Amino acid sequence: MTVLTFTLIMLLGAFLAGFIGSLSGLGGGIIIIPLLTILLGVDIHYAIGAALVSVIATSSGSAAAYVKEGITNMRLGIFLEVATTIGAVCGALISTIAPTSFIAVLFGLTLIFSAINSLRKKEEHIVLQSTPLATTLKLPGTYPNHHKELVAYGTKNVIGGFSMMGVAGMMSGLLGIGSGAFKVIAMDNIMRIPFKVSTTTSNFMMGVTAMASSVIYIQKGYIEPGICMPVVIGVLFGAMAGAKILVKTDPKKLRLFFAFLIIVLAINMIYNGLNGKI
Amino acid sequence: MDLTEKFKMSTEEKIEVKDFQLIVGNLLRYGVWISLSIAFIGGIIYLMNHGSDLENYSVFKENDTNIFSVITNVYDGVILGKGEYVIFLGIILLFLTPMLRLLISLVVFYIEKDFLYVFITMLVVLIIAMSIFFGFSH
């Protein structure tokens, strides 16, 4: 195939990945990797590099809005970035020596986990008490609800959340993804932070986390300009189109359909990884 | 200093911080658009020169170039008007947007006199700087 044809196909695929990623809440990066590797036969290292670039673009693009509205907890984000960046550097270093089949299988498992997690019912819970460590670190905060009133929330289990964030960062460095699912588990289930705050803060953190592995990726040659250019542009516009639709509807059935589709892709990836085809 | 003055000062500080957050938001947004526009222009140049070449993306060519030589290569390539290096320049600028955000947070925490968070932010910057040395090709 010529470079031009391939670029146009990738542009279209990346648009779809960004669109589905935004509707399903999984993020475009995690969907572009199976698309590039399984459907288009691109080497997984290039796919990971291109996914990382699109993660940074979507994070910086959308964090801008959330910071302004005061939902993102900047202190919480920066404190947890200590864990995610350490994890990301370790993950990126491991990815440079790990066999491709291991990366493919790990990616498939992460994809299944994230897809199932995206179907979980999200209940808003607010704890009022905070642990002493959380108070020392000034982690409890407030956020505006839909009546524009400020709601105060507390923070629990700082050490547990911090450790889980290290794992999230490592997955991000290993696979070039934002690992939003792991981050939300750390903040939501372990630290008991309200869902709205944990999602936006997770998004805010992704850019910095991804940056920690980007230098290693660049040095090892994961960043192929010819692939990154159509992918990052496609994912960003796809995500913007998806966000517009999300405002109008809550696509529950679509979400179920996408989760199913993603699980099929994931199984395919694990199968190919085990057979050494990736 | 009496109480009203103190109150006045603290609200002024808050306004400043809010302005800073607005600046952070705008910088991120413009940063993304500027770097993507550069990557797009590079993409057009690349496709004009190499559009009819055959792609070879299924084979990974592992590199071991340290970041400083990558930057020198990009600089030389951009001057020669090579599309792939113009795309690379856009990508490097994109990677710098989160760093810019970190540095601005550092300033905001310093203005708020929150030295615990000045320290934590510096720690994050340090870890990222370390990644350059860890990832060095030996």
TrEMBL record, chain A:
One Gene Ontology CC term in the entry: plasma membrane
UniProt keyword annotations, A-Z: Cell membrane, Membrane, Transmembrane, Transmembrane helix, Transport
Membrane topology: Multi-pass membrane protein
Listed InterPro entries: TM_pro_TauE-like, TSUP
Pfam families documented for this protein: TauE
Location in or out of the cell: Cell membrane
Membrane-traversing stretches: 7-40, 46-67, 79-112, 158-182, 203-223, 229-247, 254-274
Similarity annotation: Belongs to the 4-toluene sulfonate uptake permease (TSUP) (TC 2.A.102) family.
Name of the molecule in the record: Probable membrane transporter protein
Protein species of origin: Flavobacterium seoulense
